[in-house]
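Troubleshooting: if your tokenizer reports a length mismatch, compare your output against this known-good record of 460 residues.
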Amino acid sequence: MYYSLFEVFSIGIGPSSSHTVGPMKAAKRFTENLIAQNKLQQTTKVKTTLYGSLALTGVGHGTLNAVIYGLAGFEAAEIDLTLNPLETIKSTKTLCLGNQKNIPFIFDKDILLEKETFLKEHSNGLKFEAINADGKTIFEETYFSVGGGTIARQDEIKNRIARSQYNVPYPFDSCAELIELTKKHNMTIDQIVMQNEEAIRPFKEIREGMYKIHQIMQDSIDAGIHHKGELPGGLNIKRRAPQIYKRLKENFLQNDADPLMVIDWINLWAFAVSEENACGGKIVTAPTMGSSGIIPAVMRYYQRFAAPKSPFQVEIGNGIFLLTASAICSLYRTNASISGAEVGCQGEVGVACSMAAAGLTAAMGGDPKQIENAAEIAMEHNLGLTCDPIAGLVQIPCIERNAMGATKAVNAARLALRGSGEHIVSLDSVIKTMYETGKHLNSMYKETSLGGLAVNALTC
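Known-good structure output:
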């Protein structure tokens, strides 16, 4: 199954792609279907029920807010958060359903949390019910947020995504197939992905979309560097990126020759994006919100430190990076998962690390086998990574995990580039291992905040 670059990298509102972006899309799609069924005017109330991981960590992950935005008809990429539409809905206790009809809406009563119920299809389930004046349900749909902001309705979940397969010239379901395509057609991985993308949308749209994705990534770094204060949620965590940036600037002015300072810069950039995400800012899923700091940080490392290059070469390299990373993510989504609620944080930070390592290797001129090697190294050393956010917030350990994932990706790329590309463990075998490992993880370690650091850190 080929996943488009624009499914891998999508623009959304933090702090979680599976808990925020996905539910927002699901709520909006439900509302659109309600309108299409000509049942909007009969609707006097909408009830939403969150199940499993969405219920357990939805408050901290912003799921309830996302549902409201979706029911109101907002698009994540276009919403203007400075207008604070959520507060208006809460204060007036009125929701303009699908931006067409006002209905009563009480935040604490119309969204229910079923914390002990996990729907069999996926850990992230949510049900919408449209109710008429007689109190009868006139339209109902159940959705699942399966990772990276992708959703599937209950009747579609077996296909893992809510769409048919793309008709692309170079389909691939495994890394072995992808490598074989590069040999057979004498093409690089990024060239194969670009040819596939051009079969889906015009070249101009692709270039503009990639530029927008890259720009929002860079904007989120710059915003995170300069925004000060505490992260929301009650843990009273101060933003660290501004202080790190201040110290790095001071060291630079003092001509500090610390040879490892480049790691501090990578940490800074990952922190900046992750802290913006924790505050509900506009972020690019890469491939999820919880891991959104890794690829922007590694891309900026490439731009600033990887090698002397012209602005034109940097722009070309950025494109190669994103296209290659997209191909790697497509493999994970086809054969495993990028959902922390399904396979733990190895499916988020681990996959992002693998994507970043591959993208950097490609941008630095690595061949397909070196790219595979980098992606494999990065995931191999994230196997078994749990998802256990304290208080259900995408803050501890998530922010530091993004920094660690970014530096690990750079190291994986450097190891691969210093080798010939020959390696014993294939990327396909690592992806299979990651998925099996995730399936065997206890549910308390899969974005439920019922185990691990979530229950131990604050009691020690």
